[in-house]
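User: Sequence in, structure out. Go.
Assistant: Echoing your sequence, followed by the C-alpha cells.
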Amino acid sequence: MSKKTIAIIGATGNIGSVFSKSLAKSNYRLLLFDRDTEKLKSLAAEIKRSAQLADVDFMDCVMNASWEADIIILDIPAGEEKELAKKIKQFTNRKIVLIISNDNEAEELQKFLPGAKVIRMGKVNNGKELFIDTRDDDALETAADILKAAGYIAVSLKNLNNKQINQSKNNTMETTRWIIDPAHSELQFKVRHLMLSWVTGGFTQFDASVETEGENLTTAKVRFTADINSISTNNEQRDAHLKTGDFFDAENHPQLTFVSDKLEKIDDENYKLYGTLTMRGKSKKVVLNVEYGGITQDPWGNTRSGFSVTGKINRKDFGVSFSMVSETGGLLLGEDVSINANVQFVKQVALQTKAA
C-alpha cells in the first residue's frame, strides 16, 4: 500500500509546525506550504535534520496545495478561509480537509469547499487532546490516525458541543504521575573559569516526578532532587573541592531540590517553569525555560514525554561565595551558573479521579 500524502497549509504556524515535525517521522508523505518562504525553508531543514528519512517537500504557493494530497491540514488565521478556498477549491473534491480551529471557520470553509469533507479540530483544556468534529465515521478514523501520529490524543465531538465536552473533561480528570527515566536524562551546569572558558559539570544521581491532570501540561506539579555527592566535572580533585563548604557543603546539605509553583504556556513547544530552588539550605524563586519535545509510545507500550530545561542562577544567592582573583585581577570563577537539563519521563497509572 502506498503511503498517504498530507498537504499542510500554514506549516510554520504554532500547531501546523507541530504537525509538520511529528508527521515527518511517521509513514506519511508531506507537502508543506506557507507564505513565509524563509520560515518554511528553515522548518523543512530542521525536519530533514531530525528525520533524515522523512518524505517532505515544501512550496511557497498554495495554488497547488492539494493536487496530489489525500488529506489537507490548515493552520490559517481566522478570516482567510474564503480567500484560501478560491485557490484550492479545484483540488479538494472528495478529500478530507482538517482545519485547526475552536470557532466557526470550519462551517464557513465547508460552504466554500462543498466537495470536501471539512473537519474541525480544536484543543480540549489546552492539553495534548484535540477534538474532531465530524459525524462521518471513515473521516473520523482517518483524522484520529493523523492526530495520533502527530502526538495528540483524538477526542470525538460527535453529538456533543464544545461546552459539553469541556465540561465532561473537567468532571472526570485523572491525576497522572510521570517519573523520570535517568538512563535517558541528564542534568548539567556550567560556569566561567578565568572569564575565558567554561567548566561543565553535572549530577549522576537525581530523581524527578511530575503530576498532571490528565496530560494537560499547564497543571504540572514538578519535584526534582539531586545528590550533591554525585557531582562530576571529570576531575576528581575539583569534584572533592565542590563538595566542601566552599561550594555545595555536601556534608550538611546533601541534596538540592526544586519544587514548582506553576508551568506557564508560551506556545505549543515552549513554557516557563516557576518554582523554588533550594541549595545549601537557602531557597530562592527561579524561572526556567522549558521546551516540550512531545509525547510518544516506546516499543514496550510505555508512554513517554521529553523536555529540555534551561536557566541561569547566581551562585551567591545560595551562599556559594567562594572567590579568588587571578594574577591579572580577574575573577577565577564566574558568579552566574547556567543550567541545562534534558529529561525524559514515563507515564505511570492514574492516581485518582477528581469530581468537578
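User: And one key feature?
Assistant: The longest strand covers residues 333-354.
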